[in-house]
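Researcher: Here's a chain I'd like modeled. Treat it as a single chain, no partners, no ligands.
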Amino acid sequence: MSGPGSEWLDEEAGPIVRSYALTRGRARPATGEGFDMITIVSTAARPRSGSPGMGPEHLDILEMCLQPQPVAEIAARMRLPLVVVRVLLGDLLHHRFIAVTRPQPESALSKERLLREVLHGLQAL
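Model: Modeled as a single isolated chain. Structure tokens:
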């Protein structure tokens, strides 16, 4: 395919949009928040029509997260790099459109208990 704008179209992949275009050149969330791959995201509110800074990708995330989703699943289903999804999630969190549940840090006691259970299981073999 040739002609104006053809450099943005690939016959097999469809339209090509660079990651920096989706994030407006940002590589980190504006809120400074880090989103682990296992952080759970759920929709907390819907933007009004014409909300500034909300693109179609933001709206897709909100629709997807009506059922809570881990960050890795959002990236996979949207077929976007994790860094891009993290920036988009930062935008949504900044505007309070999403709620975030972060994984609880593992305590030393729970690690020790797990290791003991593994040891007892191996001894039982």
